[in-house]
Write a sequence for this structure.
C-alpha cells in the first residue's frame, strides 16, 4: 500500500489541511505541538476508525477540533495498482464510505474496516499498526516481540496462533456437549428393564378396565327400562297444566286486585260525600280571601318600590364609603408630607404656602448664583490688573491688594456655603411638593364637593324609602283586619313581622298571592264537586253491586288454583325422577366413556412403551458409537489443534524460516555484517562470524536497522505482499547525535529499498535527507501545512 493524498477537516488541530505524498522519503517537520503527529493519526484513523481508542482522548469526539460540530478525514491510497479512497466522518448519524476509483464498495464503519483489511491483505489491524507504522518511541519495540515472553505472546496472537487455541477450546466445549449426550444415552439405555416392567403392569390395567366396562353396560340396561316407565306416567299429566295454572293464578290475582281497588274507590267516594258537608264553610272563607286579591297586589307594588329605593340607598352608601376612603387616604399622605392636620382646607393652604416658599427660594438661589459669578469675576480682574484697582482705577499697594483679595474670598465662601444650604433645602421642599402634586392636590375640593353631593342624595333616597314602607304598612293593616282563610292569615301575620325588611316581605307577599291563586282554583273545583253530588251517589251504588260479583269470582278461582297446583306438583315429581334416571344413565355412560378413553390411553401407552424399549435398545448401541467419537475429538484437541499441536508446530516452522530469510535479506540490503536466527519459539538471536551477540551490544544504528528489518519482514510475512510503505513518528527522539546520524543514514537507505517512507520529525538532519518536505506550524491554535 502507498499513500497518495490525505485531507483533514476539523481533525484535532487541523482546520483544513491537504497533503499529497509521492514516492521516496517524505519528511513532516515542525516544532513540538505543531500538529505533525496528528497527520499520522489521520492516516491511522482513516484505515482503522476504531483505533481512536488508542489515540489521544480515547473517544471519537476528542478527535474533533475544539468548537467544531463535525470532523472529516479522507485518505486516497494505492494497493497493487488499484486506487482506493476512504472517507470517515465524525458526526452523529454520519456514514463512513470506501471507494475503488469512484465506485462505492462499502458503507458503514464496520463494513469499511473489514473491506480495508481484505484490500491490504492482513488478518487484523494490529498486524499493520505494529509493523509498517512506528509510533513515537516505539522503533525498537518490535525487538521485544522476539526477545521477551510477553512480546512473543503478542507476536503469536498477531501471527494467528490465537485462532488455533480458540479452535482447541471450541473442541473442548464440543467434547463436553458430546459427553453430556453420551451420558444421556447411557441414562436412556439404563431405563430398558424399568420400561419392560411398566409394559407388563399396563397390560394388567387394560384387563381390569375391560371387566369394569361390562358391569357398566349391565347397569345401563336396567336404568333405561325404568326411564320408559317414568316417561309413560308423565304423558298422562300434560305439560299444559303449568300454563293453565299460571293463567288461572294471574286471573285470580287480577280479580282480587280489581276487588281491592274497587273497595278503595268506594271508600274514597264515601269519604268525598261526607266531605261535601264541610265544603260550604270552605266556600265562604274562599270568597272572603279572594276579596283581598287587589289589596295584596297594591301591597306588593308598595314593597317593590321600597326595595328599589333601598337598593339605590345601599348603592349610594357604598359610593360614599369609597369616596371617603379615597379622600381620607390622600389627605393622610398629604398631611404626612406637609406635616399638617388631615383637613382639606388646611392641606390646600399648607400646599400653597410650600409652593410659595419654593418659588422664593428659587429666586434667592438664582440671585446668589449671579452674585457669586460677579465676585469671582472681580477676583479674576484683581489678579490680572496688577497694582490698579479694576473698580475705581486707583493704584493699590501690595498690602491693600491682599486685604481686598482676602475680603472677596471670604465673601465668596460665605455665599457658596449659603447657596449650598439653600439648594439642599430647596431640593427637599421640591421633592415634597412633587409628591403632593402627584396626588392631585388641586382636585381635593372637587372630591370633597362630590362626597357632600352624594351624602345629600343619600338623605333623599332614605326619605323616599321610608315613605314607601309607611304606605306598605297602611295596606298591611287593612289586610290584617279582613276575614281570610287560616293559611292566608298565618302568612299575613308573618308579613307583619318582616315589614321592615322589604325583600323578605316581598317573598311572603308573593306566597300569599300564590295562595289566593290556588284559592281561585279550589273555588272552581268545589263548585264542580257540588254540582256532581247526585252522580257520585249513583256511582257509589254501582260500586257496591260490582264488589259482590267480584267476591263470588274470587272464591271460584281459589278452588281451581288449588286443583291445578296438586297436578303440577305430581308432574314436578315425575320430572325429577325422569331427570334423576337420565342423570344416572349419563353418569354410567360418562364412566363408560372414561373407561374406554382409559383403555385407549393404556393401549397408546403400551405402544409408547414398546417404542421406548426399542429406543433404549438403540441408545445402548448409539452410546457405544458416541464413546468412540469422543475419543476422536480428544485426539484433535490434544494432538492436532492448540498452541502446541501439529498445526501450530508446522506454522511456527514456516514462519521461522520465512522471518529468518526476510530479516537477513533486509540486513544484507542495508549492509549489515551480522545476521539473525530464530529458534522454535521464534526467539531472535544475533549471529556475527559464527558467534551469538547480545542485541544490547549493537550500535544505535545497527539496532535501528535490525528493528526496521524485523518490522518489514513481519509485515511481509503477515500480508504476503511486498512492503511499499513505512511510517515513522519521531524516530530520532531521545537519541544522541551519533545515533541520530546513524538512523538518518538508515532512513536514506530505507527509502532506496521501500517505495514510500514517511517520517514525522523535528530533526533537520532527517529533513535534509528527504525527497519531499512538509512543514507544519500553528497559527492561533490551528495547524497549517506547507510544502517546503
Amino acid at each position: 500500500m502507498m499513500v497518495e493524498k490525505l485531507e483533514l477537516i476539523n481533525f484535532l488541530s487541523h482546520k483544513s489541511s491537504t497533503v499529497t505524498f509521492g514516492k521516496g522519503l517524505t519528511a513532516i517537520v515542525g516544532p513540538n505541538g505543531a500538529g505533525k503527529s496528528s497527520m499520522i493519526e489521520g492516516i491511522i484513523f482513516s484505515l482503522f476508525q476504531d483505533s481512536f481508542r488508542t489515540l489521544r482522548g480515547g473517544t471519537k469526539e476528542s478527535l474533533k477540533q475544539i468548537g467544531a460540530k463535525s470532523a472529516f478525514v479522507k485518505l486516497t491510497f494505492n494497493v497493487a495498482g488499484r486506487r482506493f479512497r476512504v472517507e470517515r466522518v465524525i458526526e452523529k448519524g454520519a456514514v463512513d464510505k470506501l471507494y475503488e476509483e469512484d465506485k462505492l464498495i462499502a458503507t458503514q464503519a464496520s463494513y469499511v474496516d473489514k473491506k480495508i483489511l481484505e484490500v491490504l491483505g492482513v488478518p487484523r489491524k494490529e498486524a499493520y499498526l505494529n509493523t509498517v507504522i512506528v509510533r513515537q518511541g516505539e522503533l525498537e519495540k518490535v525487538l521485544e516481540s522476539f526477545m521477551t515472553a510477553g512480546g512473543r505472546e503478542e507476536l503469536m496472537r498477531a501471527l494467528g496462533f490465537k485462532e488455533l487455541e480458540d479452535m482447541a477450546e471450541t473442541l473442548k466445549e464440543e467434547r463436553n456437549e458430546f459427553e453430556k449426550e453420551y451420558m444421556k444415552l447411557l441414562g436412556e439405555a439404563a431405563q430398558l428393564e424399568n420400561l419392560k416392567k411398566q409394559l407388563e403392569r399396563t397390560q394388567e390395567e387394560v384387563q381390569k378396565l375391560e371387566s369394569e366396562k361390562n358391569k357398566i353396560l349391565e347397569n345401563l340396561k336396567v336404568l333405561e327400562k325404568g326411564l320408559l316407565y317414568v316417561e309413560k306416567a308423565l304423558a298422562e299429566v300434560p305439560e299444559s297444566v303449568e300454563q293453565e295454572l299460571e293463567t288461572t293464578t294471574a286471573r285470580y290475582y287480577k280479580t282480587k286486585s280489581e276487588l281491592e281497588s274497587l273497595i278503595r274507590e268506594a271508600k274514597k267516594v264515601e269519604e268525598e260525600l261526607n266531605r261535601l258537608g264541610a265544603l260550604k264553610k270552605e266556600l265562604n272563607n274562599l270568597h272572603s280571601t279572594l276579596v283581598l286579591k287587589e289589596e295584596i297586589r297594591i301591597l306588593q307594588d308598595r314593597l317593590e318600590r321600597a326595595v328599589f329605593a333601598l337598593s339605590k340607598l345601599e348603592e349610594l352608601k357604598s359610593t360614599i364609603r369609597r369616596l371617603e376612603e379615597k379622600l381620607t387616604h390622600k389627605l393622610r399622605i398629604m398631611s404626612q408630607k406637609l406635616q399638617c392636620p388631615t383637613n382639606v382646607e388646611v392641606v390646600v393652604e399648607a400646599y400653597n404656602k410650600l409652593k410659595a416658599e419654593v418659588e422664593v427660594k428659587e429666586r434667592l438661589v438664582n440671585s446668589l448664583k449671579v452674585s457669586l459669578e460677579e465676585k469671582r469675576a472681580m477676583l479674576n480682574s484683581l489678579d490680572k490688573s496688577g497694582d490698579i484697582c479694576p473698580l475705581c482705577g486707583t493704584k493699590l499697594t501690595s498690602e491693600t491688594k491682599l486685604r481686598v483679595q482676602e475680603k472677596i474670598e471670604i465673601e465668596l465662601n460665605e455665599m457658596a456655603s449659603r447657596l449650598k444650604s439653600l439648594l439642599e433645602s430647596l431640593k427637599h421642599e421640591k421633592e415634597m411638593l412633587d409628591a403632593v402634586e402627584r396626588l392631585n392636590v388641586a382636585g381635593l375640593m372637587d372630591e370633597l364637593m362630590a362626597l357632600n353631593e352624594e351624602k345629600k342624595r343619600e338623605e333623599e333616597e332614605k326619605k323616599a324609602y321610608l315613605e314607601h314602607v309607611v304606605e306598605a304598612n297602611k295596606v298591611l293593616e287593612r289586610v290584617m283586619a279582613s276575614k281570610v282563610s287560616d293559611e292566608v292569615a298565618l302568612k299575613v301575620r308573618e308579613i307583619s313581622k318582616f315589614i321592615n325588611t322589604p325583600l323578605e316581605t316581598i317573598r311572603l307577599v308573593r306566597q300569599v298571592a300564590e295562595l289566593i291563586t290556588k284559592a281561585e282554583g279550589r273555588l272552581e273545583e268545589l263548585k264542580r264537586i257540588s254540582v256532581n253530588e247526585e252522580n257520585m251517589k249513583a256511582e257509589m251504588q254501582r260500586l257496591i253491586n260490582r264488589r259482590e260479583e267480584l267476591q263470588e269470582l274470587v272464591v271460584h278461582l281459589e278452588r281451581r288454583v288449588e286443583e291445578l297446583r296438586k297436578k303440577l306438583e305430581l308432574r314436578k315429581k315425575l320430572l325429577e325422577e325422569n331427570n334423576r334416571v337420565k342423570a344416572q344413565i349419563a353418569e354410567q355412560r360418562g364412566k363408560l366413556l372414561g373407561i374406554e378413553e382409559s383403555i385407549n390411553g393404556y393401549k397408546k401407552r403400551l405402544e409408547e412403551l414398546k417404542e421406548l424399549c426399542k429406543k433404549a435398545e438403540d441408545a445402548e448401541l448409539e452410546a457405544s458409537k458416541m464413546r468412540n467419537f469422543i475419543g476422536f475429538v480428544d485426539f484433535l484437541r490434544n494432538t492436532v489443534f492448540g498452541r502446541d499441536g501439529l498445526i501450530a508446530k508446522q506454522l511456527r516452522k514456516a514462519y521461522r524460516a520465512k522471518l529468518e530469510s526476510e530479516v537477513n535479506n533486509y540486513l544484507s540490503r542495508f549492509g549489515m555484517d551480522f545476521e539473525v536466527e530464530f529458534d522454535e519459539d521464534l526467539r531472535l538471536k544475533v549471529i556475527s562470524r559464527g558467534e551469538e551477540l547480545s542485541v544490547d551490544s549493537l550500535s544505535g544504528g545497527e539496532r535501528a536497522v535490525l528493528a526496521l528489518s524485523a518490522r518489514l519482514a513481519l509485515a511481509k510475512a503477515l500480508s504476503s505482499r511486498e512492503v511499499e510503505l513505512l511510517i515513522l513518528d519521531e524516530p530520532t527522539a531521545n537519541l544522541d547525535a551519533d545515533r541520530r546520524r546513524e538512523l538518518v543514514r538508515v532512513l536514506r537507505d530505507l527509502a532506496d529499498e521501500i517505495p514510500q517512507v514517511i517520517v514525522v520529525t523535528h530533526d533537520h538532519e532527517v529533513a535534509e535527507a528527504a525527497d519531499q518536505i512538509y512543514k507544519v506550524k500553528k497559527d492561533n491554535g490551528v495547524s497549517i501545512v506547507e510544502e517546503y
